[in-house]
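Quick log. Single chain, no ligands specified.
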Amino acid sequence: MSLERFINQAISPWMSADGPDSDIVMSSRIRLARNFNEYTFPTVFTIEEANGVISSMEEMTRQNPLKELGQYEFLKINELQPLQKRVLMEKHLISPRLMEQAINGACILSENEEISIMVNEEDHIRIQCLYPGLQLTEALTNANAVDDWIEENVNYAFDEQYGYLTSCPTNVGTGLRASVMMHLPGLVLTQQINRIIPAINQLGLVVRGIYGEGSEALGNIFQISNQITLGKSESEIVEDLKGVVKQLISQERSARDALARTLNIELEDRVFRSLGVLENSRILESKEAAKCLSDVRLGIDMGLITNIPKTILNELMILTQPGFLQQYAGGPLRPNERDIRRAALIREKIKLDTMNS
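-> predicted structure:
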């Protein structure tokens, strides 16, 4: 296994698998924030402390491997090229914050890319588990197995009253962030999303874009996650989120049914116009590409398009990001050059999918 495999393989192995409600829920993620008791938090620690955290994790993975992790890659962020870091971020294997870490950051990646352990991000340890579809409980089970393995070798910063101590007070307690990535074109097209988001926020959840905090909801893809980490157990947080997600799934399906009943020809026109744009454009900006890919995926899910696999949205939303485009080009590209290459890549991908269907 090598870094090149993580970089060159656009779609993670777990993304190719089907999961429950995967027509709407693209992925489930569990992230646990943990810190070493003997070191100060990464926001204020010294270089020596940062290196101590990395050394401890390297030694632990080498001497006491975890079976859930399987084969893995230990990557030091300061040894990666800027494009390599960006590609890993675009695949959601590292965070934007860790990507920008100039020194003393690391990441442990499992071969199937379900597990990512970020080292010296905002906290000493960020355990991330990703699953296709709505599988929060399964992701939590896997994350807890990784957490137990680390805790056998590390003294965590833990308080009997407050729970796990973290750099940011909003993570204190369980240190758990549970999130789902959802494709919600029906709620967007019927303009219901504008009233739903404030209601979700009132339930102690937050709605963000595809790359988390501060990012835009490109391609009608929204990330729903918990805000509260203190005062509830991990299982309670997960069950609360699952309850809201199941309601959103029901509302999205109802919205799609309404579109099919009342605007069927208009919906077909939108879907096939977007497909035509993807099949024929010579220049495509990222926002337009994301919008058209969302329309095509909706058309696939509703049975309007039958010769293109539904994984097209997952794969091309990653493949057409700036880092991947430049990785395939072998070097930096100007914005207009990226738009030209994005259009060419999408045309070729759809052509191949159609031929293989």
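The two ends are 30 Å apart (CA to CA).
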